[in-house]
Design goal:
CATH class: Alpha Beta
Radius of gyration: 17 Å
Strand order of the largest sheet: 1-2-4-3-5-6-7-8
Helix content: 25-40%
Oligomer: single chain
CATH topology: Rossmann fold
Number of helices: 6
Largest sheet: 8 strands, mixed
Order of helices and strands: HEEEHEHEHEEHEH
Structural class: alpha/beta
CATH architecture: 3-Layer(aba) Sandwich
Distance between the termini: 19 Å
Number of strands: 8
Number of domains: 1
């Protein structure tokens, strides 16, 4: 399905419908997000780590109450650490706090050790190692898993979703790939499980990643039929320019475009396969 923000004649009609359960989950998530708007950060979670070294390092965001699900959160490619405290985490801290407040444990892999790293299969290996370390430190929780990725992190999210069993990790129930970079050369992508939910997002003003990466992943997904995948174009509005940086915004429009769909995928994952 494509929401009102996404229109394309190339998408078959059968992909334009959300399942009833997911539609309800998205509505509930939107209401929860609206209620959350404007709230100041409260100490509902703690950041642990980094555990591991270099690109295999990982941070954990742990909620103050028992977790009902787990989110693996993949940041975009970074040329310089943006913050001195938790340099990889704090750029997305409002969103991570929101997820933790909703009862999610969060694994936040570094996958980079510095600005001079190459975006290659070595980053995939570091990302996988960081997730393993995160699961181990969390005590290998038996809760539904959703994987989110932004930009290069979205490309890595598909690597995890496709290779979870081979990596010895829990298979995610859903993937949200926001403004994905291209496929990673040399990184294997077996077919995804047919029941896995997938949301691909593209910004109409994104001149950095554009739609090429999303289109390549969509073609790969289309080779393996599933009714649970969706290609969504985020159209710019006066409240949100859908540039590559849009997913890092925290205003109401950004929360509706990026946070609410992820909340919906989490709710659907909690409700069952």
């Amino acid at each position: 399905m494509r929401t009102r923000r996404s229109v394309s004649a190339r998408t078959p009609r059968r992909r334009r419908r959300l399942s009833g359960a997911l539609a309800v989950a998205l509505l509930a998530a939107s209401v929860a997000t609206a209620a959350d708007a404007g709230a100041s950060r409260t100490p509902l979670d703690r950041v642990e780590g980094p555990y591991g070294r270099g690109g295999a390092a990982v941070w954990l965001i742990v909620p103050s109450r028992p977790a009902r699900s787990l989110v693996v959160f993949g940041h975009g490619w970074k040329y310089t650490p943006p913050f001195p405290g938790h340099p990889w985490v704090d750029q997305f801290r409002p969103w991570l706090d929101h997820l933790a407040a909703g009862g999610n444990e969060i694994i936040f892999p570094a996958y980079q050790s510095g600005a001079n790293d190459l975006a290659d299969t070595g980053r995939v290996e570091d990302y996988a190692a960081a997730i393993r370390t995160g699961y181990r430190h969390l005590g290998r929780p038996r809760v539904p898993v959703v994987v989110f990725g932004y930009s290069f992190g979205a490309s890595l999210a598909f690597s995890y979703a496709a290779n979870a069993r081979a990596w010895g990790l829990p298979v995610p129930r859903a993937v949200q790939a926001t403004f994905p970079a291209g496929m990673i050369a040399g990184a294997g992508l077996p077919p995804l499980p047919s029941m896995m939910r997938v949301l691909l997002q593209v910004g109409d003003a994104d001149t950095e990643a554009g739609s090429a990466g999303a289109n390549a992943f969509w073609q790969w997904l289309s080779a393996h039929p599933s009714s649970r995948k969706r290609y969504e174009i985020i159209h710019s509005t006066p409240q949100l320019a859908a540039t590559h940086a849009a997913a890092k915004a925290t205003n109401a429009a950004a929360r509706a475009a990026f946070w609410a769909p992820l909340d919906g995928l989490i709710a659907a994952a909690r409700s069952g396969p």
